[in-house]
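Bench log. Compound arrived from synthesis this morning; before running ITC I wanted a structural hypothesis for how zinc ion sits in the protein. Inputs:
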Amino acid sequence: MRRITSKDTKPEIVVRRFLFRLGYRFRLHRSDLPGRPDIVFVGRRKAIFVHGCFWHQHSGCREGRIPGSRKDYWIPKLERNKQRDREHAVSLRRLGWDVLVIWECETEKLHRLEPRLVKFLGPQERSVK
Ligand SMILES: [Zn+2]
C-alpha cells in the first residue's frame, strides 16, 4: 500500500538527486509554507511538489485511475487531496512563490524533465560537469 504522508518517497529522492546533479541547491519540506513543498529554493522563491499520480490524481495518467471498487470511498477522498493541492498552490502564489508540480510518472524519464526544471528555476548556482 502506498503511503500518502511519507517524507522521502522515492520519486522525490529521484528528483532531488537529479536537481543536485544539475547544480541546484535547495531546502526540503519547509513546514512554514502552505502544503509543505517537497523541494524549496528559498532565494529564488520557487517551490516544487513531487506528486504521486494516484494520491494527487494525475489527470490522463494510468496511475491516476480510481479503483473500480469502493468508488464512493475513493472519489471524495481523492477529490479532497486535489482540492488541497489547489489551495496550497494558490496560497503559495499569493505569498510570491512560483510553484511547479512534478508527477511521479515523469520522474521515470528524467532527461525529459531537465528543460522544464531549468526553465522553472533559472540558471544554476554552479557550473555542472
Ligand atoms: Zn502520472
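What the model suggests: The first strand starts at residue 27 and ends at 28. The pocket of zinc ion is lined by residues 53, 58, 61, 63-64, 103-105 (CB under 6 Å).
ITC booked for Thursday regardless.
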